[in-house]
Each structure stands twice: as structure tokens, then as C-alpha cells.
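Subject: sequence -> C-alpha cells, single chain

Hey, anyone have a minute? Need the predicted structure for the following. Not urgent.
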Amino acid sequence: MNIPNPFTNKVYALGDGSHYQIRPIQANDRERIIELFNHLSPESRYLRFAHAISKLPDDFLDDILHLDYKKEMALLAVMTSHKGTEEITGIARYATPPNQNTCEFSLSVSDSHTSHGVGTHLMLNLIEHAKKNGLQEMIGYVLRKNSRMLQLVSDLGFQILNQDDDPDFKTVSLPL
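Reply:
Had a minute. Here:
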């Protein structure tokens, strides 16, 4: 098993006095990731996966829980619930195709925590980690109607381009 580059967990405050921690994904996060997905609205699921999806595929879960840290990273935003259990409020991931210095990112934030900075902090930490891993560019494919994601990546300095071959998507890229 390979080990990720060192990552220092970071804590961020929310406006209501609560806080969340950003940390790397762990193999025992499976059920918490399923819970995050189950609490996403159908619209949020569509915007994230670009089609209607009612259940996370097992192979998807296996992929994100067992990373090749030379090419991939997944970070979670985690809160402690009032019951004392961890609740995942967001996940950001990148994967790198073989023999390339470009990575592709994805991001999901629970509907109840959008517009609170969770996605921004996840992406900033993911970008920082990609830079430390020597990657040169981060890209993503965002549905044209996903205005929140397009605004987020614009605020982070990503260039946004139309796709000639698929008018439903925009390509976003950030030199690292």
C-alpha cells in the first residue's frame, strides 16, 4: 500500500460557531460517503455526476477508498454531529491519467453546506496537494448549468472554456 504525501488536517469555522475538519479519505469512510450521497438532492446528484443516479456504484466507492496516492487524492470535510459521530459534508478528489502531469478534479458538498466555504476550502487544499505532488495542471468538466461550480472555479482562478464537441459542458483548467 502506498502512502500519501504528508497532509496536515485543517479546521475551519462556520458562521454558526460549528467547525469542520479537512482530512484525507480513509478506508473506513465508506458508510459516511454513502450518507453524504444519500443526503444530496436529485439536482445536486445530477450536477455532480451529469446524469440521474440514485445509488453510488460499488466500483466508484472502491476507487475513492483505495487510492494510488502517486496519482490520486481525496479530501473530506468532516463535522462531528451532535451525537458525537463524524459526518462528511463534502469531498474533493483528483485523479491523474498514467504518464501525465495533469489531474482531473471532482467536488461534492452536501446541500446543507453549500455557500459556506466548504467547497472552496476543499478545493484550495486539493490544489495545494496536487502542487506538492508535482502536477502541472488541474482540469475539470462542469455542466454549463452548474453555475455555483463555475463561479467557484472562476473565483479560484480556473480558466473556463466552452467545449466544441459537447455544448452541455465547459472545461475548466488551472495551471499549478
